[in-house]
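Ticket opened by: R.M.
Priority: normal
Category: complex prediction / small molecule

The reporter submitted a protein together with zinc ion and asked that the result be attached to this ticket for the collaborator who will pick it up next week. Submitted input follows.
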Amino acid sequence: MRILGFESSCDETGVAVVDTRQGLLAHALHSQVAMHEHYGGVVPELASRDHIQRVIPLTRQVLAEAGLALGDIDAVAYTAGPGLAGALLVGASVAQSVAWALGLPAIPIHHLEGHLLSPLLAEPRPEFPFVALLVSGGHTQLMRVDGVGQYTLLGETLDDAAGEAFDKTAKLLGLGYPGGPALSRLAEQGDASRFKLPRPKLHSDDLDFSFSGLKTAVLVQWQKQQQGGESEALAQTRADLAAATEAAIVDALVAKSVKALESTGLRRLVVAGGVGANRVLRERLGRRLQRLAAQAYFPPLEFCTDNGAMIAFAAACRVRAGLVDVPALAARHAFSVHPRWDLAEASGVAA
Ligand code: KG4
Ligand code: ZN
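Result attached by the on-call engineer:
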């Protein structure tokens, strides 16, 4: 079965074709970063309008790259949530329209399920069961994954997501948007030990996170240093604060991932979501898990941040697992999107 997938939950339009037997055939992505950069963050209405303009040309491009026509497609998939309501509606309405016109099923996919299964797009593929660390701009969760559609929440952030902590700290240090990659680049020139930043919940017994205090602590330090500081010294201070922020976030993510492996007795950790692209996190987790005789799996860098491949692929996994009622979805094209949506609720059969 060939599945055409659409991702439009935030500021990336992604389209892909995945074959349930052959895997990924083609994918294309348009990032809106340059557009939102002027505003220091994502402007939801602009995001929706841009998705509308990009989605059809990207679909044509993907079909051409795969050497396929629309008539060769057997099913359509789209991100139904969580995300920005207007942005989600663009992908959902295009996907449902295409499916309705062609008499195909349209499979709604949970965005985090896409992230969570994306490491299975590359070799070596982790076997089930595994622990998944989902670290994106909007979510930070540890999940136990026993199979496709079998997700149990182990712990999550009580306030800011890890990506949000990167982005907000980067913003107050004047690094622009998106902050995560910029902050992590600057951190390479910094000394992480110069500033001691808080690590709430680092030693708590649960598997939860808390990142909201971090930006306040950085703000206090940054304002103090700015008073009367020489510009050269300030540049170094900024890099040191960036390095200290990255270290604090990575410490929490590594500590709770290890705790999740210990408490479940599992030996495989899958890291997914935009923050999974972070080099320090990848290195630290890799080393720490080696000592535990456990294995860390990361998606290929291009599939860490939002993309259409992970949505078409998640749909293919659900079809293979018998979790999609294909005739019911082919017969009914009414739809809604879920701007807020728990992954554990998305485990059952989609119809
Ligand atoms: O998964 P994603 O593309 O979108 C959401 O579903 O939220 O994740 C985006 C998040 C942003 O907060 C971004 O700053 C962060 O991932 N990010 C990074 C890196 N690359 C992206 N954070 C730290 N280091 C990076 N290299
Ligand atoms: Zn995402």
